[in-house]
Amino acid sequence: MPKINTNFNNRTVEYEQLLSDFKLLLKKNNLKFTIQREVILETLYNSDEHLTPEALHHLIQKKEPDLKTGIATVYRTLALLEESDVVTSLSFGAQGKKYELGAKEHHDHLICTECGKITEFVDEEIEKRQHVITDELGFAMSDHSMQIYGICAACQKKLKIEGK
Amino acid sequence: MPKINTNFNNRTVEYEQLLSDFKLLLKKNNLKFTIQREVILETLYNSDEHLTPEALHHLIQKKEPDLKTGIATVYRTLALLEESDVVTSLSFGAQGKKYELGAKEHHDHLICTECGKITEFVDEEIEKRQHVITDELGFAMSDHSMQIYGICAACQKKLKIEGK
DNA sequence: GTCGCTGCAAAGTCTTTGCAGAGAG
DNA sequence: CTCTCTGCAAAGACTTTGCAGCGAC
Question: pLDDT per residue over B71-83, tens digit each?
Fold first, then answer.
């Protein structure tokens, strides 16, 4: 498959915008706009979570049971979307890949190991340092992910009260 | 029995220390100290790279061909070591996990999505900012991990030559 | 001797691929 | 109409598991 041309960037975009960009992308590469591809994009857009291919497939089956979308199509579309930088895949530790729309704003994660709550944050200083580091090594950064694990303020309080 | 490695390097834990900790861990859990487990630990210790289970298995077969260590044992031992926080696993892009000794100094990772090579780095600025962020939010940080994805200098060169 | 460990092979997972018919352009 | 896409099922890649004999303690 030829290298995909893309017009996407990292700004937060509305769905309509995303969709028309996607159609343009397809047209440019002589690919077809199918119901399946639209449903996959829409489901990704409407999810706030990082989805595994399987989770995405489940959501789609629930939303559009008549389509009988195959898991193979989900994988193929995710590969296409990833190559076009529409979605980003992340491996969060344990198993499998998870996908999220790359068009959403970048953020890092604070993860409470007590209650599982995930807080998003962005720190300009850190972002800057990352560029300094990669520039120094001639590394072309495409993405990064950072997770800080610990116990959130609420849980610390709770644990204190419980005398643990 | 494999020889103890006495090379001078900058690891925070010497092999003998690691080995005796490992033996203690096994004893505590009523597990047995076997040649296979020792060879796996030693091979991990002597490798400067992040190893896939398969790569580790290959190294072991080359080093101790008479043992005929099975890949299943490698997987089982890695799972044991990971659960005991002796090794850490990293998942990078495409497929499979890679393992490294967790007893080394803390560091973050630069991951080349082209060749899979992992480069370690530590940046004091970033470490400091993490503390500032968590302190501000009253979050008790216990650990963190950061991965920067992109294309390493060597692969950029290679891709350029291939005209991609 | 006991009971956990090991190698082997078989069974699971997860992901990709080949194919013939369906469908977008 | 043409040529890409799709679902299905089969194949691959990677990892785990069942089992019978082996070996640490």
Answer: 999 999 999 999 8
